[in-house]
Amino acid sequence: MSVYKSKKSPYYRFDFWVRGNRFHGSTERTTRREAEAVEREHYERAKQRVAELQEAAISLQLDHVADRYWIEIGQHHAGADNTERDLARLVEYFGKTKLLTEIADADVAALVAWRRGHRVAHTDDRLISNATVNRSTTEVLKKLFTYAEGAGVRFNRKPNWRKHMLSEPAERIRELHDDEAERLDEAMRADFEPFFAFARATGLRQRECVTLRWQEVNWSTRQIIKLGKGGKPVMTPITAAVREILWPLQGHHPEFVFTYVAERTRGGRVKGKRYPLTLSGTKTRWRRQRKAAGVTGFRFHDFRHDFASKLLRDTGNLKLVQRALNHADIKTTVRYAHVLDSEVAAALERLAESRTKSRTNAIKSANSRK
């Protein structure tokens, strides 16, 4: 190590390497002796910092594993903010220094029991659903184990994940009735109308609609391409209906497609000005709109179910619906097959009529030959 002076500064500078990491800067001292003392202080701190970094790189402490998972994978999720909250919740529960290899079945069972006692935010104090416990807790911890295994970690007593997954009722398929649609339209705030119309016209998830950016809208190719669930690209065609919704919104905001008009001046917002929609804001707006319209039992996600059901009923093509919903597995799309029950019944009736007619004709033909 040695300090040196630059012609551009009266202060001595330090510049050294520790295990492949470079540290350099000004000592803010004008005498060599004082500068060398400052350099030694920086060198000792650098050694400690490098040791901490190298320890964290191989550490199995939950906090370190969660950090590495977040940097390499989690931050790139379409719902990265949810991933960040879920990881933080695990660290909060177990503690930063809990070793991943120490987490066994009993620990996971206790975690699940703890999480089941949480309440749904902004509601009448209802407990969160089993599906929420699974998605936001058990499955997240399982992903950390899978991530560690991919890095070569071997677990002597890995939890039996299937045992800790709570049962979930089959997701019901809810369509929007005509009178409900009319009441919702009547309760609609004008600045939110394009957002809800877009959700109904495309079947995209709420987050995918809220975060839509102009850079993802390609007018020339008539396509919207953005990252969806699981980080997979979702292609949505710009139909005439979608174009009619989006085209007038240009100029409202340079980055985000959907905006709202602030009704009052507060929290940095100015009354009358437009601001990008937020996920929490659209959830609040949807609750109020649904209540004002007197529509019950219809969630925002049901717009997606409504879209899929009507598309399948119109086309009778499950593969097409799978593509429109961006389902990786057609088994997920098959749950909409019930909408074709009436078409199946009609086809069976036609088949039965055809067979009856054929038998009748055959009997008439046989009698005529006698």
Verbal overview:
- The protein has helices spanning 32-58, 62-72, 80-94, 105-116, 130-150, 161-164, 178-186, 193-202, 206-210, 240-246, 279-293, 302-315, 318-325, 330-333, 341-369, and strands spanning 4-5, 12-18, 21-26, 217-218, 223-227, 233-237, 259-261, 274-276.
- With 370 residues, the protein is mostly helical.
- The chain has three domains: 4-58, no CATH class; 62-164; 178-341, hpI Integrase, Chain A, CATH 1.10.443.
- The protein has a three-stranded antiparallel beta sheet, covered by helices on one side. Strands 4-5-6 form a three-stranded antiparallel beta sheet, with no helix packed on it.
- A hairpin with a 5-residue loop joins strand 5 and strand 6 (233-237).
- Helix 3 (80-94) crosses helix 5, helix 7 packs across helix 11 (279-293) and helix 8 (193-202) packs antiparallel against helix 10 (240-246).
- The longest helix is centred in the last third of the chain and has 29 residues, at 341-369.
- It is elongated, with a radius of gyration of 30 Å.
